[in-house]
Amino acid sequence: MYDVILAATDGSDPANRGVEHALSLGSRYDAVVHVISVVDTGRYGEPALSSTELVLEELEDRAHEHLADVAQRAETMDGEIVTKTCHGEPHEELVAYADEIDADLTLLGKQGLSRTGHHIGGVANGFVDGSDRPVQLARTVEHGSGPVFYPAGRFPLSWRKRTAFIRSARTNVYGY
């Protein structure tokens, strides 16, 4: 069913749930799982000043730590795992990388480290708007246990975003 799966991480709980689901699917389908962490140069810019360079170095170190953790968790997985760190606008880099590897499925956290309330985060929204590839968004559900699957449009979103998800049968949000 899936040969190539892409997951993105920024170290947030929803992103980690997406990565866990990607690893599980990769093991189940013997798929290659690509896990990417993007250093957001759109927020901080390219290093020109020493303070910006220090911030970006710190973010890149965190990205490498997140990916090392993922690689360690994936040791028991049956499929292959590929990790990548890059710089740029996260949603643009994710769309480009998904196209480059011809991802059959992309898993993203519903919201990353810059929480936006009940709405999907900017990176997830940018990916959904900028790509025609299948995507699943992971979120943390505070109640219940086990996976919960939400069909498109069945979770709290602004009217515009809800309408976009209802029109898009390629998006699924799940939580644990």
Polypeptide structure, described:
- The protein is of the alpha/beta class.
- The protein has a single domain (4-175), classed as Rossmann fold.
- The protein is 43% helix and 23% strand.
- The protein has helices at 13-29, 41-44, 50-73, 90-101, 122-130, 159-167; strands at residues 4-8, 32-40, 81-88, 105-109, 135-139, 148-150, 171-175.
- Strands 3-2-1-4-5-7-6 form a seven-stranded mixed β-sheet, sandwiched between helices.
- α5 (122-130) links the parallel β4 and β5.
- It is globular, with a radius of gyration of 16 Å.
- The chain starts with a strand and ends with a strand.
- Residues 143-170 have low confidence and may be disordered.
